[in-house]
Specification:
- The protein is of the alpha+beta class.
- It has a single domain, classed as Gcn5-related N-acetyltransferase (GNAT) (Aminopeptidase, 3-Layer(aba) Sandwich).
- The chain is about 25% helix and about 25% strand.
- It has five helices and eight strands; from the N terminus they run βαααβββαβαβββ.
- The N and C termini lie far apart (about 35 Å).
């Protein structure tokens, strides 16, 4: 399968967004949402863009949405911080789709004068971290609880995730500082985690 048509997903296409998320298998859902989620959770989650403004870019293959990025304001209204999340279906992975989507997200964030993007992923999610690093993201390790609430802790430089204090690393939060001179222009965790909106 080749890389598809990457463009914004319209509100009228939210059923495609839902169906894409529903096609994610159990491990992918856990990677995407940082915990296991049911079909009914996804059905409610996929309607969130109707309540919270969300910029979704998608990769369409034969008119079917197979990969997305989600950009959402933290706190529910556009300010200087937003969060991003990504999901790409297995058949399309490893072809640069998420990297391309990251570029689009960064451009959309810049257009909204957002200066910080946060991306939460599991510490074991090396692919996502690899993509973030391509965009000169500063990676910050944080310890959290199973609920997904993050309790930031400052770690010594060079710390290895998972080895400090014997605590389990739950999330890796990536901070993309869009004002930083080294951040790339031009192209862009579990989104909805900090929007103030909870999916039951
Ligand atoms: C994470 C995810 C979005 C990546 O999508 P993708 O389209 O396959 O990503 P890309 O092809 O753009 O880039 C993957 C990069 O990871 C690299 N990679 C692959 N396996 C890797 C591994 N085990 N360790 C480190 N890097 C790895 C690839 O080489 C590639 O980097 P490169 O372009 O420098 O070669 C996709 O796997 C996914 O949807 N996972 C489930 C949901 C999820 O984890 N979302 C992220 C949290 S919100």
């Amino acid at each position: 399968m080749s890389i598809g048509n990457i463009r914004k997903v319209e509100t009228s296409e939210l059923d495609q967004f839902r169906d894409h998320l529903l096609r994610l298998d159990k491990p992918a859902r856990r990677s995407r949402f940082a915990h296991s989620v049911s079909d009914s959770y996804i059905e409610k989650y996929a309607a969130l863009p109707l309540e919270i403004e969300t910029v979704i870019h998608g990769c369409f293959v034969d008119d079917v949405l197979r990969g997305v990025s989600e950009l959402r304001p933290i706190g529910g209204a556009w300010g200087d911080m937003a969060e991003v999340a990504f999901s790409v279906e297995p058949e399309l992975q490893g072809k640069g789709v998420a990297t391309e989507l990251m570029g689009r997200v960064i451009q959309s964030a810049r257009n909204r004068c957002i200066t910080f993007l946060t991306l939460t992923c599991l510490a074991e999610n090396h692919k996502m971290q690899r993509i973030a690093k391509k965009f000169d993201a500063q990676l910050k390790f944080e310890y959290g609880e199973v609920t997904g609430q993050i309790l930031p802790q400052k770690l010594p430089a060079g710390s290895v995730a998972g080895k400090l204090h014997g605590e389990e690393v739950r999330h890796l939060t990536t901070i993309l500082d869009l004002d930083a001179p080294r951040s790339r222009a031009g192209g862009g965790g579990a989104a909805a985690g900090r929007t103030g909106k909870k999916v039951a």
